[in-house]
Amino acid sequence: MTQIENAWGAGPGEDYETIAAPFRPIFTRIAENAIARDLGRDLPHEAIRDLKEAGFGAVRLPVEAGGKGASLPQFFNLLIELSAADSNITQALRGHFGFTEDILNTRDAARRALWLGRIGGGEITGNAWSEIGAGAALDRFATHVAEKDGRLVLNGAKYYTTGSLFADWIDVGASNAEGEGISVAVRRHAEGVDVVDDWDGFGQVLTASGTTTFRDVVVTPEDIVVDEARFRYSAAFYQLVHLATLAGIGRAITADVAKAVAERRRTYTHAAAARSSEDPQVLQVVGRIRAAAYAASAITLQAAASLQRAFDAHFADDEAAEEKANAIAELEAAQAQTVVSDLILEASTLLFDALGASATKKPAGLDRHWRNARTLASHNPRIYKHRIIGDFAVNGTPPPYQWRIGAAPG
After folding, report:
1. N or C, which end of the chain is more exposed by having fewer CB within 10 Å?
2. What is the topology classification, in CATH, of domain 234-395?
3. Which helix (H) or strand (E) holds 25?
């Protein structure tokens, strides 16, 4: 069924249904086993392999490079659909899509050609940027590239390396010998690379957001780029992946609660009907949840349009216009974040009001929605985004759209 037939609204662009159609059977298969994977901590290797083979990792690439030529709103709508099937998989691919977006923005023709070939050929990239300690907050990564025995080697440790366990490459934030911030692409299975699934969070448990260490990993100059050259709307882009994931969780909540209510036979003596499926109060709860999911999707896609404008501005040779478009994209992403997070967190709790206490049984897997939404909504705290939005509204202060996290320097 199309998005319109499902009452989620039309997909962005006249060709959205054509782009989405080949992936929907895969999304359906992924959804069928989502609860079992969560309960058994069964990492989604097969699901990610199916998406790779179908070209999902290349969907933003031009058609001539092996992609689908999807716009940013179309891309984020696809992420909403994937997240409705299993939000873990969207987050596991978040680093890959951010890296791909950087390649689409690069003005380095050789680098662009190299990576379009790799991504168009089905290869995906994981993420390794976060570190423990003060250096990361000051753009001085402890992870570094240096010369050793006539070769460049990478050494260091990274945390929250989401998706790297499933990847062909890992995009690593590091410092060079001059102290500059750089990103380095290394083969996931290169000698000296060790990826460990030690993520112990209560949500998004299948993203393999664990620890990765690098010990004298040989790197080539062609796979190193100065950090400042990366695409400028990256913070908004990465945040919007989370929002698309939350919107998809909202759709998954809607599907699960509607199915459970339709099948429920037990009722209460003081209920408004003999069956939950006929009880107007229960139906009202289900409707409220679905409306929240609808709104979350619509808000996410509105913010995605601002990213598309930032992408287009990058190629317009107007530095001032590009800077403004980047700032607006960051503000729109922040405004969307503060609302979407609330909508889906509330929906993940409301669903239990439509059901009985039996809905809390572990085999039902309904708790995964709150755990996953709460984990995603904890990224990039909303309290700071509210302040940034307010500062713009009152004082016209532009947002800080590139930032780091780490221990405060002593």
Report:
1. C
2. Butyryl-CoA Dehydrogenase, subunit A; domain 3 (1.20.140)
3. helix 24-32
